[in-house]
Amino acid sequence: MTPADRLLSIAQAADLLGTTERFPRRLIAERRIAFVKVGRHVRIPASVLAEYIATRTVQPVTLRRTLRRAA
Asked: Of 4, 3, 41, 9, which Cα lies nearest the Cα of 49?
């Protein structure tokens, strides 16, 4: 997290993740992501969400084609 990191509300984080607000709230409750308390408001740094997405991105598997030999 950098000092100039943008702080997102729960609704903004949910929109970025493409989920309902319940999902980021659960991530916070389970302490699976870092968050910031500003008074009674909860904010999530944009870099934390970017890292969360990056670490859970599954890369596609490339299959190697084997050449069949004529018998």
From this structure: 9
Domain boundaries, the chain: 7-55
> Under a CB-based contact definition with an 8 Å cutoff, are residues 52 and 33 in contact?
yes
**If residue 27 lies in a helix (H) or strand (E), which one and from where to where?**
helix 22-29
pLDDT class of 64 with cuts at 50, 70, 90: confident
- Side-chain-side CA neighbours of 52 within 13 Å: the count stands at 20
pTM of the predicted protein model: 0.77
Q: Which residues pair with 43 in a beta bridge?
A: 36
Q: Which of 45, 16, 6 is nearest to 28 (CA)?
A: 45
